[in-house]
Structure formats: C-alpha cells, structure tokens
Write a structure and sequence with these properties.
Blueprint: H1 8-37, H2 42-73, H3 82-109, H4 115-118
Helix pairs in contact: 2-3
Length: 122
C-alpha cells in the first residue's frame, strides 16, 4: 500500500519493508520446516515450497500484473505515473491479504495435528 502512493519516500519505505519481510521469511522458513517435519521429508517439502513460489511469481509477474496494467493504461495513449501502477500495487496487496487469511485458516485447521505434537517424547 505504501508503494501505491508513488511518492518516492513512501516507495522506498515500502521496498524496505518488502525486502525485510522476504529476507526474514527465507531465513526463518528453513529451520521451521526442519523442526516441524524432520530431516526425512525436508528436501521434498522445501523443493515443493520453492517450486510453488517460483510458479506463483511467474504467474503474478507475467500474467496478472501486466493484464492489470494494460487495463489501467488502456484509457491513456501514454501512461505515466501513479494512475498506471496503483491498481497493480493494490492487487498485490489484495493477494497478500488473501494469503494471510489462507494461512490463518490452515493454521486453525491443523492446530491439533502438527508433526511436532506427534513427535513429543514425554
């Protein structure tokens, strides 16, 4: 949402937050997956996760965002500025909210069947 304003200081702040969130995600996800699912299935789970992220990023960057941009730019002969990109940034924000809601739903559904609970030795 910060990036959709197209003001340079807010864009830089949005890029800073996005970079930190991706850096933290990739730093934390490896030990979390290892602790939750163990070493036996670690490669399969991480490979599946990274493949899904690659497929999603290609779909978003090559299909979704260009079509949103073309729809916004269709009104202008030459499209410059925030009017052309705002809808693209807002669609990414909506995707993030949908992903957050899906993560919350999955966490609640799987709360009682986490592998860590099954591996408890007490």
């Amino acid at each position: 949402l910060l990036v959709s304003t197209m003001a340079v200081p807010l864009v830089m702040l949005g890029v800073f937050f996005a970079g930190n969130s991706f850096g933290v995600f990739f730093t934390v996800v490896v030990p979390v997956v290892n602790e939750m699912y163990g070493r036996k299935e670690f490669g399969v789970i991480m490979g599946g996760q990274l493949a899904c992220q690659a497929i999603a990023s290609i779909g978003i960057s090559m299909e979704l965002l260009p079509s949103v941009y073309r729809a916004a730019a269709h009104r202008h002969k030459i499209c410059l500025g925030a009017d052309c990109f705002r809808l693209s940034f807002l669609s990414l924000a909506v995707l993030n909210v949908v992903a957050l809601l899906a993560a919350i739903v999955l966490e609640r559904r799987n709360r009682t069947s986490l592998p860590v609970d099954r591996l408890d030795c007490n």
